[in-house]
Design a protein that fits this description.
The chain is built from 20 helices and seven strands. It is of the alpha/beta class and 550 residues long. The chain is globular, with a radius of gyration of 25 Å.
Length: 550
């Protein structure tokens, strides 16, 4: 029998007085979370990093019917390979495709993705209870929903247009279906497959779901895991997942020669592309990755430093954002590993038809698999923690509910909630923009800086540069990719790694009219004989004449 299989009572069935009070409490939590998320919607004035590209794709689909990033980026592809607009190569297409109808309606891809993330973020609050109730019980499920409603990072990612909030939703759907319902019933196994397939079409880190599914199956069935009758459910789930993702995998195979192509993954496997050169071959600009200078021992030491930094970064973030609860999470994982959770939960808070060991299996295994991926990745970024936070809160809430006597438990739960609210509000207040995509609040980011604060300052200058471009008139830009979002003009991504011959080639090839560069590097473009159109203490806008931009 699969973990958690049984006649699961609907989560909102009023079996007890506590059960009868669920609906108004859940509605209040959802309403409070929605108001908080509306504030995040207002705070996220400008699109961050990858959101710029997803919004551009949504605009391209809405206005041109083309699934393309409508800019040029020769840092990764030969100059003539795709021309103006290259296929999505960082994320799969589900998020911008979902945003495209709203982009057509609103006339702005970023606004569309912000609204989409807001809707998903609000739904995430009641979904936490619905998913966690059959796994860990009524009380822990409500506590999890409340913590998710008030979690500042989850609030911010419900208003910044990022796809990571959708991945968090798919994670919860997965643990709900795979943990509470199991895979013995074929229709349920197919539903799990659909969830995994859609998650993979959202972002490639969702590979954690099929990996977790296999581990859940082995743990749940033990020695019977590889019997034919036991393998039917997982086989259906994995088959449906592949069927859902197959069109995109085939697209990648045709376009890139690799069904699992991901530009960030390729860069990471190549050592982060730290040693590269740009050369002109005929009329092509080519980027070549150079062999590493350091030996195997030095590379191993660098990898060890990365892993150490990643573990420290994750620990610091969770300690600040989930104080006390982090200890409960670790204790809950340890208790599950030791098998102590098999004792079950007594009383009205017990799940309707499953023991905590069964319910926890999906939660713990998915959390551990995702943590392993986050730590293994060369440089962990804050957004990778977004799908993990609800799982940490659920496991921590479950363990807190096992504490006896009830009076002590209630006191510790109250302290935990109060500290989580305090540190999240403190983090919110620490960042002037009240946004958190690049973190940098109470904890320095994994690059040793205050990521979000520095990004906001830089983007403020780029916004001013974009205003100067719009006032001057339309023309192709060589500059930062966020300028495309600000101006809507054709854009070629600039890089400080480009030598003069590459810059000149790009200017001629694409009829560049404007170059937006850091003020300190303005002299590097003087060979093009530009006119300085605008400048501040950070950036300069150069306008090219002659045969370039006109």
């Amino acid at each position: 029998m699969s973990p958690g299989i049984g006649a699961v009572t609907h989560p909102l069935t009023p079996r007890t007085a506590a059960g009868r009070s669920v609906v108004p409490i859940l509605m209040a939590l959802t309403l409070a979370g929605a108001v908080w998320r509306l504030a995040a919607f207002a705070f996220n004035v400008w699109p961050h990093g990858d959101v710029v590209l997803d919004a551009a794709i949504a605009d391209s689909v809405a206005t041109r019917g083309a699934l393309l990033v409508p800019i040029v980026d020769v840092r990764y592809y030969p100059i003539d390979r795709f021309g103006w607009g290259y296929p999505p190569d960082q994320h799969p297409p589900l998020w911008p495709l979902l945003g495209a109808p709203l982009a057509l309606l609103l006339g702005n891809g970023y606004a569309a993705l912000k609204l989409l993330s807001l809707l998903v973020g609000v739904v995430l609050v009641p979904l936490c209870y619905l998913a966690c109730r059959p796994l860990i019980g009524h009380g822990p499920g409500l506590l999890t929903a409340g913590l998710v409603a008030a979690s500042y990072p989850l609030v911010d990612f419900s208003g910044n247009g990022s796809l990571w909030i959708l991945l968090a939703l798919f994670y919860l759907l997965f643990v709900w279906r795979a943990g509470a319902r199991g895979l013995d019933e074929r229709r349920g196994a197919a539903v799990v497959g659909i969830i995994m397939g859609l998650a993979l079409l959202t972002n490639y880190p969702a590979v954690t779901l099929p990996v977790a599914l296999v581990v859940i199956h082995v743990v749940g069935h033990g020695r019977r895991a590889f019997r034919r009758e036991a393998l039917v459910g997982p086989a259906i789930s994995l088959g449906v997942m592949l069927a859902v993702a197959a069109p995109w995998l085939a697209h990648n195979a045709v376009v890139f020669g690799n069904p699992l192509w991901s530009q960030p993954l390729e860069r990471s496997l190549a050592g982060g592309s730290r040693q590269v050169e740009y050369v002109i071959l005929g009329d092509e600009v080519i980027k070549r990755t150079l062999p590493p200078i350091e030996g195997a021992a030095a590379a191993a030491r660098a990898r060890a430093v990365d892993l150490y930094g990643n573990v420290g970064f994750v620990a610091r973030q969770l300690l600040v954002l989930t104080p006390v609860l982090l200890g409960f999470f670790l204790a809950g994982v340890g208790w599950w590993v030791l098998g102590a959770g098999c004792r079950g939960v007594e009383g009205p808070d017990a799940p309707a038809s499953t023991t905590p060991s069964h319910g926890l299996t999906a939660l713990v295994i998915l959390a551990l698999v995702h943590l392993a991926l986050v730590v293994w990745w060369p440089t962990t970024k804050f957004r990778y923690l977004v799908p993990l936070l609800p799982l940490v809160m659920a496991i921590g809430s479950w363990f807190a509910w096992q504490l006896k006597p009830p009076a002590m438990r209630n006191l510790l739960v109250s302290i935990t909630v109060g500290l989580c609210l305090f540190t999240n509000l403190w983090t919110f207040a620490t960042i002037p923009s009240h946004t958190y995509y690049y973190d940098g609040g109470l904890v320095r980011d994994n690059f040793g800086g205050q990521g979000e604060t520095e990004w906001v300052e830089e983007t403020r200058h780029l916004r001013a540069a974009a205003d100067a471009l719009v006032a001057r008139g339309r023309g192709p830009i060589l500059g930062d990719h966020v300028l495309h979002a600000f101006t809507g003009y054709p854009l070629v991504v600039n890089s400080t790694a480009y030598p003069p011959d590459i810059v000149g080639h790009l200017a001629r090839k694409y009829g560049i009219r404007y170059i937006v560069a850091e003020r300190a590097r303005a002299e590097a473009y003087r060979f093009l004989q530009p006119t300085e159109l605008w400048a501040d203490d950070r950036f300069v806008v150069l306008e090219l004449g002659g045969g370039f931009g006109r």
